Every structure is written in structure tokens, then in C-alpha cells.
Amino acid sequence: MVKKAFTGLMAMTLGVVALTGCGVSKDSGSTSEASKSPAASTVVSPAASKADKVTINFMHSWPAGSFKQQNAVLTRIIDDYQKANPNVTVKTEVLENEQYKSKLKVLSASNQLPDVGFTFAAGFLEPYVKGDLFEPLDDVLNNKLKDKFVSGTTEAYAVNGKTYGLPVELNIVPVYYNKAIFAKNNLQVPKSYDEFLNVVKTLSNNNVVPIALGNKDRWTGSLWYMYMANRVGGNDPLKKAIARTGSFEEPSLIQAAKDVQGLVDLNAFNKGFNGLSYDEGKSEFMNGKAAMYLMGTWELPSFTTNPDVPKEFKDNVGFFKFPAVNGGKGDINSWVGGPGAGLFVAKNSTVKAEAKKFVEYFVDQWGKVAVTEAGVIPATKVDTGTVKLPQLYIDLLNELNNASNITLFADVQMKPSAAETHLNMIQALFGKAVSPEEFAKKHEEALDKAAKE
What we know:
By secondary structure, the chain is α/β, with parallel strands linked by helices. The protein contains 19 helices and 14 strands.
């Protein structure tokens, strides 16, 4: 079943084709946080050890506090690369997601990007490409990595026929839930939005927080809006509004905003959610205080393989698809998601050739161990018949076989200026500082302005 699921995923084109994650921390250097991988046995040639010393500056957004497994595997891959190439030092800087994006903008203004860094797809990378800041990576893609990526993933990092980033993640966004809390309150997994609202009301009436949310970072709330927009209006309205072949004032997009505020009115979310960070919101679910949590599959390690999370909690985590809205045009098998973080090489890097070799090595090694050691779906193909996976992971892969559509995260689809307005409006919508109609109008103005930039 798992193999079949991944085969279906590989065959699927992602169309428009999560990131995400947080926790504030910094790091420099590259000390290992895990045991040796098979790659560590790479034979080092005498020539390599005598080569000129090279330092690759690598900036990413997987801090150990929030992404323990990912950070550990990333660190080990770097260590392995340095052992195989003793003339190379990979110096890392680690930032929480929003801080990372902000610093990338600052560095780009002075053309001082790191040699290698994280980027995201579509609208996010376009300004960097137009500013001639990212190096095309088609030569890397067509070398050892040829045919290794899931169909549709690298296309999301292409601009005018050239590839400027190589993705390392493929994410979808399920609703995780605490089975023990559901059982205690005699609740079943909802299959329709009306049933979902009943779950919310029952939990709230029983003094249980229905949904964990940390919306200080804003994109977390965008996930809720995107699903409402999809379930009410189907796949096209949001996509067309962002592409400027449609309008954000389309009735289904306004209705989706009304439905979001309807959840707020039902006290569906934990108190103070708009002022809580990603990690603070997540902790409401992890500590058993909230019954549900809508988040990307990059969180799978927290619910499956993270040794610091109690087994009792991990055994109680299940998931369900965002429910269908009665009378809506959306399909319950349509997901929010797409490729997550990808790697770029700076156009003006003084160690460009070595940076490309490192990127090629990283993507290849990450794909081999991401599933088993980090619990993360990589963007490269995986022979799932040869690996042992936690049941939650298997169940999600099986659901991917039935995916009818994957809609890329809205802020990633948009140009940066419009994305900033979108995120601000999401927070204002959840805080009831704007009406649904105002929400739509502000989006129209921002998207029109961005289209002229």
C-alpha cells in the first residue's frame, strides 16, 4: 500500500506547486548531533586534503529547538561532507523561519547572500531571480540528481525555464488530533464541516481547547483560510485571484473569510493565539491542552520519531483531512501543501563550484535518510518498500495516493509585497480587526500593485 501511494504521488503534477517552522535560535559551525551515516565512509583522496581551503557559508531555518530531527540529519550530512572533503569548511547560521526570511531580504539588498541557503518556491524566489542573486542549478539537476525528484517539485523553483532552487521537502497539511481527548468527549473524526463545527462546540462546552494555534507568525492562520477557500469555492478562485485572472472579491473567498471569523466566534482557538509564536501554539497541542492542530507534515517527527516526546502522546496522535463544506465546490482529497524548503546557490558566491557540489551532495544524502531518520517526506523519490515507517507516516502516504490537487501555500504563490499584505490581513482577520469584505479589498489592492512591479 505504501509503495502504491508513493507511486501515485510521483505520477501527480503538483499544479501551482509548507514552511515554515519556528523557534528562535542561532548556530555557527557544524558540530554533529547524530551518529555516523553510510556517507561517512566516503574515501578521501590525497588530492582533496591538499586542495585550497574553502569555506561555504550556509544559512537555513531548521533550528534544533523546533526541528530536532531535521537539524540533526542536516548537521551530520555537513560533517560527512567535511570528512570527505577536508579542505572544505561549512559554516552554518540558523534562524527561525520569519527571522530567516527577513535576514535574506536584508542580505540581498547589499548582495551579500550566503553561498548556500534555503529558498522557497514560486513567488518567493522570483524577486531574487530577477535581481540576478540566485545561480541557475540546471547543471546540478541534470547531473547525478537527474530523474531523482518527484514530478512537479523542481518545476516550482523554475523561472523562465531555468531552475534556481532544489527542493528537499514535500509537504501536505492534515489536521492532527488527540485520540484520547476525542474518546474522553465521545467524539468521532468529522467528515463534514458541520460535523467539525459540532466537535469544536462540544470541546469548547467541555472546557477543552478545540484547536492549537500560534498566529504571531501569520502563515499559520493562512493555512486555515486556504482550506476554507478551497472547500467553499474549489481549486480555482484563490489560484486565479493570485494569478490576476480572477478577483479576491469573488464570493467564495469572502465567504471563506467569514467562516474563519465564525471559528473565532466559537472560541475554537486557544486564548491569545494571535500573540503566540509557532512554538507556543504548537505546545498547546503537544502538552495535551488542545484537541486539534492544523500543520504541515514537517511536524511528523514530533508525532513519530522524536525521542524527547513521550510515547504515550505519540500513540494518541491521529489525523484527518480538512472536512468538506456542505454545498461547497471543494474536494476533501484536495490538500494545501507542496514543496517546502529548497537550496539555492548565490550568484556572486566566490566558491560557487564547491557550493554546487555541496548542494548536490546534500540533496542526494538527505533523500536517502529523510524518511527513516527525520520522518520527513523528501522531494526526491523514495523506495518505501525498503524502509520501515511509523504507521502515521504510512497512513499519510496512502492518503497522498488519493490526492486530487495540491495547492501551494498562498504567501509563497504571491510576490513578496503582496504576501506581506496577505499575512497582515490574515492576522487582522483572525483578530476581527477587519471585515471579510475589507480583507478581500486589501488583497485586491496589494495583488494589483504587485503585478505592476
